[in-house]
Amino acid sequence: MRFKFQNLRITVILFILLKFYIIQYLILHYSKNIIQEALNDLMTNSQEFSFKISIIGDGGVGKTSLIKKFTKGTFERDYNQTIGAQFSRYDIEIDGDLINLIFWDIAGQDDFKFLHPLFYRESKGCIIVFSLEENELGEESFNHIENWHNELKKYCNDIPVVIFANKVDLIEEA
């Protein structure tokens, strides 16, 4: 009986040692790959940067169309109201560095105003869009620029802001 117990103990010890060596091998093998990838990244001196850009303005001024045109090169004439927020990503390489622009297309209708503070969080920049249409929407969207800017400053401190006049193609020539 004692002999069997010792054999079992030896088997268990061997199993534990084998398991330890397998784990050690896996750690060394995979960490070597991770270290090699990190060194390759350092040697190429390329980096990746991500920036969240909030796109705000009254509903119907063309925020979604502006983003689609910039990120995908497409334009849709039909108006589909944004519900809450939509996200689009645009990647560009500058001097060997990858720049990720993540556009947050934020709904401009008052129904979604309570969500704006959540959507603005961690924005690195903002584009306030207004319409140049010669109608009530155009006039109101222009008059609301200051309101949008004040709301943004309340939640985002001091981020760069661009004011973008949209729908210039819809202005009637006099």
UniProtKB/TrEMBL annotation:
Keywords: GTP-binding, Membrane, Nucleotide-binding, Transmembrane, Transmembrane helix
Disulfide bond recorded as keyword: no
GO MF: GTP binding; GTPase activity
SMART domains: RAB, RAS, RHO
Cross-referenced Pfam families: Ras (PF00071)
Family of this protein: Belongs to the small GTPase superfamily. Rab family.
Designated name of the protein: Roc domain-containing protein
Organism of this sequence: marine sediment metagenome
